[in-house]
Amino acid sequence: MTDLSPHQPPAPPGSIPHADVEHRLRVTDTDPKAAKRAERQVASMFLLSVLFTILFVVSYIGIDKTTTIYIPVMGEVGALQVALGFTLGAAIFLIGAGAIQWAKKLMPDVEVVQQRHDQVSPEADTLEAAGQYERGKEESGFARYRMIRRTMIAAMALFPIPLVIMLRDLWVPTPDEVGKSPADILSTTLWHDGLRIVSDGTYRPVRPEDLPVGGLISGVPADLLEVEEAQGNLNARGKAAIILIRMDPADIRSQQGDGWDYQGILAYSKICTHVGCPIALYEQRTHHLLCPCHQSTFDLADSGEVVFGPAARRMPQLPIGVDEEGFIVARSDFAEPVGPSFWERG
User: Fold this and answer.
1) Which range, 48-52, 65-69, 132-136, 231-235, has the best average confidence (pLDDT)?
2) Which of 210, 189, 187 is nearest to 198 (CA)?
């Protein structure tokens, strides 16, 4: 018969308490004042989590995005980013630290070894497990420690607020986008009639002779760098990036428009229509374009149609030609929206 302290709950039925190691009671098991002090510590952590969550919202609203501060080693950094990172991190940390402190100081500290049993439990064992669950719920003190319960609920209730607040950053229109709907903005790119295609990286205009049969070049609009500098972001690149590939004109079975190629050179969006991953894995023999993220495969010799994978839309094709100096240019914008589908796209 194992002698259990009156401060220790009995071991669950079917379990064998450790007999080879002397169990030492915690201070909170024997001293009501220490237990009360631990309760206040846990509640304080949860309350501090509430405070940091509120400070997150205040920082998000009150600190200007252009304000910077100096931090040793790191140098000049954005004050808003520092404030948001610190307050949200502290709020999460304090919820976890409070839960750990609660478990270590106030929850039952019984060490047991339970014998293995068959995976399928008899009904009696199922009822016994349900009883142990109810017993564990009672022993956790969730109902008894009202201060902990209330502060923890408050901390957990306020914790999602920063996540909701940050959703605002998903839609911050640039000055030239004000007044336009998301569908209009996402359905148009920089491409227009006569705009030269330049190689991404070198930003040199592309001639047809630069691209051999089976070759591939990643291209962008000639005015992309100026637009990025003016906008201060990479949004335009994310919509306008294309790939140029060249195949034998006899291999082209269909296109999205009549005569949209130039001597076997085709231009397609580089953004997968599944979730927007950039694609440049081209197989010359099959003319298939493979997305490395989820293996969506598109047949560029057949209007960019999907032949495998989760993508539901074909790759949009850009009509191209050459200008008077012999450089490859776009003849219009894409006729179909580029990138992943969204609810406002028909």
Assistant:
1) 48-52
2) 210
- What DSSP line would sit under 260-324, residue for residue? -SBTTEEEEESB-TTT--B--EEETTTTEEE-TTT--EEETTBTTEEEESS--SPPPEEPEEE-T
Write the pLDDT tens digit of every residue in 116-171: 666 777 888 888 888 888 888 788 877 788 898 899 999 999 989 998 888 777 76
* Helix, strand, or coil (residue 38): helix
Helix 32-62, helix 146-158: angle, nearest 10:
20
pLDDT in tens, 163-185: 888 877 776 666 777 777 777 77
Query: Which CATH superfamily includes the segment(s) 178-330?
Result: Rieske [2Fe-2S] iron-sulphur domain (2.102.10.10)
CA angle 156–160–162, rounded 5-degree value: 125
Compute CA distances 224 → 235, 238, 252, 310, 340, whole Å.
10, 11, 30, 31, 21
List the domain boundaries for the chain: 15-170, 178-330
Determine which of 66-75, 171-180, 209-218, 245-254 has the lowest per-residue pLDDT on average: 171-180
- 3-class DSSP state for residue 175? helix
CB burial readout 207-221, b (16+ within 10 A) else e: ebebbeeeebbebbb
Question: Among 225, 239, 306, which residue's Cα sits nearest to residue 269?
Answer: 239
Place of tokens 């931090």: 71
Q: Tell me what pLDDT residue 230 has.
A: 86
What CA–CA distance (Å, rounded) separates 130 from 116? Answer: 18
Residue type, 14: G
**Mean of pLDDT over the chain:** 87
Integer angstrom CA distances of residue 104 from 9, 123, 250: 16, 33, 74
CA angle 325, 330, 336 (to 5 degrees): 175
* Rounded CA separation 55/157 (Å): 15
Q: How many angstroms separate the CA atoms of 152 and 39, rounded? A: 12
Residue 207 pLDDT exceeds 80: yes
